[in-house]
Amino acid sequence: MAPRKKTKVRREPRRELPKPASRTLPLRAMAAEALDNYFTSLNGHKPAHMYDLVMREVEEPLFKSVLDYSQGNQVRAADILGINRGTLRKKLKLYGLAQ
How many domains does the chain have? Predict the structure, then answer.
């Protein structure tokens, strides 16, 4: 049996993301700052269902960005996100992003 021919891995060019004008912070620091601002803005009101709130706020732009990066390829997007393609499709439908 003949050996398999090696194929080159096709790499996508790196996409430069716009940087905030004033500073560049890691995502974790930006999330902490946003949460601090949220708690400050409550003015004494009791927060509730924080996990659901944060997931709704983060998932939709995350899926939009990854789909854009993968040029709409849901299999690649699911792989990048580390989730099952069926789960990705369900979430896309939930957020009205299904194609």
Answer: 1
Residues 21-77 have pLDDT tens digits of: 556 779 899 999 999 999 999 998 999 999 999 999 999 999 999 999 999 999 999
Residue 23 maps to a domain: no
DSSP assignments along 43-89, one per residue:
TTPPP--HHHHHHHHHHHHHHHHHHHHTTT-HHHHHHHHTS-HHHHH
Rounded to whole angstroms, the Cα distance separating 72 from 62 reads 13
Instruction: List the domain range (segments joined by +) for residue 57.
Output: 48-99
Sign of the Cα torsion 28, 83, 68, 49 reads negative
Which tens digits make up the pLDDT trace of 1-21?
566 665 554 555 555 655 555
